[in-house]
């Protein structure tokens, strides 16, 4: 979630917004500066790299062995790939160990006023805060589709939330994960983040943070670590998205195709976790939706990112710009780290479906807003599905 900070009054709500990325902020100990593997250790020859990935790396002058041995930390502008076709994410086995996953966090932000309602009828009144409720453990029994996304950026290791969704091209065998655009790509001022991985049912037993230091990886990531072998977000997010000003927020969504870090059992992600949500691109209008439930792993205080929470509320509308899609908004006290987490409501068929994801909210954490999924979102989703059809 990227908090909204209102400033001077203006004619439109967009003029009084400034966003700061906190839902996927750096860890306090800058874990991104830690060596991923010893400099003398060669790349694992057993990890198969697709030829097209090798070719894309070569085109940008990237040596795979050097990349795995720390070159990925080079955030020079000519090394930070940003175009949609340039996504690369070679697996670095065991990079995301329990300590590194636990340290990927969001630092606290300075509190500011969060009341930005009153956009002459376009934006509904600011919703009352809804206290986030801890999801009952084990998480797999109550929210099997939910998990955490880990990734590296110039400021260190970062974290978001995400959801396993169905794949039309591979019924019952989906490897698709839905999250926010700003959890995979920095927007107009940067490029694709690196070492993107998804952990379903992270800390499945809801263990206390103090106990996690002694908890084996098999319990922290009981369904494995799944690396993104492809990610796609909207062209609007790539061209407009920014940490300030609210640009790109109505298009702040992404789909990641994942593969198991160590080869797995041959089962898909959906088969492994036993569930995947359909995605609704024509959800009922706001007045017809009784409630939406947002799920995530909030990391900024008073939360620590190690446990799963949910908020349920009747949605309202939030318009950033008249010419852009109106966003959903609900009351919720979840903080940074919940970005990308799925919003579930009844679809047109009356069954639960993913209808949005957490994108922005105020530093004071009284509400969340997410994009309404339309043609652009459906295009991203369909493109990733078709790319891996039959695979």
Kindly report how far apart the N and C termini lie.
32 Å
Low-confidence stretches: 5-23, 25-47, 107-121
What radius of gyration results from the CA coordinates?
Answer: 19 Å
Total DSSP E strands: 16
Shape descriptor reads globular
Query: Residue-averaged pLDDT, rounded?
Result: 83
Q: State the major sheet.
A: 6 strands, antiparallel, barrel
- Proportion of β residues? 15-25%
Briefly note the structural class of the backbone.
alpha+beta
Please provide the ordered H/E string of secondary-structure elements.
Answer: EHHHEHEEEEHHEHEHEEEEEEEEH
Q: In which range does the helix fraction lie?
A: 10-25%
- Count of helix runs: 9
How do the strands line up in the largest sheet? Answer: 3-4-5-8-7-6
Give an overview of the whole structure:
By secondary structure, the protein is an alpha+beta fold. 14% of the residues lie in helices and 22% in strands. It has 9 helices and 16 strands. It has helices at residues 51-59, 64-68, 98-103, 139-142, 209-212, 217-220, 235-240, 269-273, 375-387, and strands at residues 2-4, 133-134, 146-153, 156-165, 176-179, 194-200, 226-233, 254-260, 292-296, 309-313, 316-318, 327-331, 342-346, 352-357, 360-362, 367-370. The protein has a 6-stranded antiparallel β-barrel with strand order 3-4-5-8-7-6. It has a 5-stranded antiparallel sheet with strand order 2-10-9-13-14, with no helix packed on it. Strand 3 and strand 4 (156-165) form a beta hairpin. It is globular.
